[in-house]
Design a protein that fits this description.
4 helices
Length: 66
């Protein structure tokens, strides 16, 4: 991810927007995997929500059915 962000300096606006979209997808995949791992390790929805800076309801709504 750092490589992608660092390489955005020389990009035009369209290329930079595409790079940001790819970065958002990667962050979403990573967050999903980390939440799954946290649940498997026994963390509560409340603890996960605290780590992510969102409400317990928001994290459960987003990841509860995975």
């Amino acid at each position: 991810m750092k490589t992608l962000v660092g390489s955005m300096d020389g990009m035009g606006p369209a290329e930079a927007l595409h790079a940001v979209a790819e970065l958002q997808k990667e962050v979403s995949r990573t967050e999903s995997a980390l939440v799954r791992g946290a649940r498997q390790a026994g963390l509560s929805w409340e603890a996960i929500a605290l780590c992510l800076g969102v409400s317990k309801q928001a994290v459960h709504r987003k990841y509860g059915k995975q």
